[in-house]
Amino acid sequence: MNIFTEIKEGVLISFDALRANKLRAALTTLGIIIGIVTVTLMGTAIEGLNQAFLKSISAIGADVLFVQKHPWFSEEPWWKVRNRRDIMMSEGKALMRQLTLASAVALETYTRKPVRYEGVTAPAVTVVATTEQGAVVGGLNLTSGRFLSEAEVSGARPVCVIGADLADGFFPFETPLGKRVRIENIGYEIVGVLEKRGKFLSGESLDNQIFIPISRFATDFMYRPYVHIKIKVRDMAQMDEAREELRGVMRKVRRIAPGAPDDFAINEQAAFIRMFNRVAGTIASVGLFITGLSLFVGGIGIMNIMFVSVAERTREIGLRKALGAKRRTILIQFLIEAAAICLLGGLMGLGIAWPVSKVMTQFFPTTLSWTIVSIALGVSIVTGIVAGFFPAWRAARMNPVDALRNE
Fold this sequence. Notes:
Layout: H1 3-20, H2 22-28, H3 30-57, E1 64-68, H4 78-82, H5 89-98, E2 102-117, E3 120-130, H6 134-138, E4 142-145, H7 150-154, E5 159-162, H8 164-170, E6 180-183, E7 186-194, E8 209-213, H9 214-220, E9 228-233, H10 239-253, E10 265-268, H11 269-312, H12 314-322, H13 327-360, H14 370-396, H15 400-405
Parallel strand pairs: 3-8, 5-7
Antiparallel strand pairs: 1-9, 1-10, 2-3, 2-6, 2-9, 4-7, 5-8, 6-7
């Protein structure tokens, strides 16, 4: 008898045994079901968060450096960071003239203001004051119109580019171009509409924004605004050189004495990625521990039931061995039975996890992919094989004479 025939025969005998003990098999799978539900939901949550993170982080740009007062993630005492000088527009303009490894530089500052068009008001819109290269640095695409021009920025013209949510809310049946919206009580002409961008990591909509010239912002809202500087590096291979050039020029512009620490931060996408990987790793470790504990408990249950099954079928085992069945054949039979019980538990666990993941999607992103399904089923089968090995080994090593004498 070859191995394939033994496996086929083992499958048939195992499923006959499961059908004969349906209730016991169902109760035995409870621990496996809990473990598979846990591993599946953990996998869907982590994969969904990964995809949402990568989509959101793409808005920052891998080739963009940010000069800001505060670092995104830092172990430096908060009071030292708080006491740093603000970055002013004059410093940003001086920096723009001296950088050689940047393809585009934009100065930006932000505030929240109500925006109104006729009788419709958006109460808390993010007003982004920027320069003409803000679209290039920020990777902004427009569905209609254009972005702010150099002449409009230098001339402090009252023009704006609106996000997709504002366009849909204010102008559902007409083109926004050429219309005038009011930021607080100041009118701005719409020259462009951005394509839909979604949400950032914090959950804030990137489509509820309005872009205006930073010079106009200084005229209408804040006389000397502090700014953030965004630098798009010409070549990704020169990121390190660009960062060092930026640091050196910024220290010169801010007149920082040699040996004194920087009073500004250079932030980049990689900082978010490192932090996310640490958080995701912690979540995965906790989930793995819970999953492992559930599967361990389930595996112990499978092992005990398989020992009971071997004891109940001792005479059957003895008879099969007396008729010439090999140890390998008996071993395969009981391993298949244990694996089948766990596979049943895995399928039931997936049946529970799928609708739960759909509910979870309403609160945060989840993705139940075929990879996760395959891993869950693979884990359940491996758990069955590991848990059933010792009972199967015991059955395979039985002496047929002693087994036939068993009552």
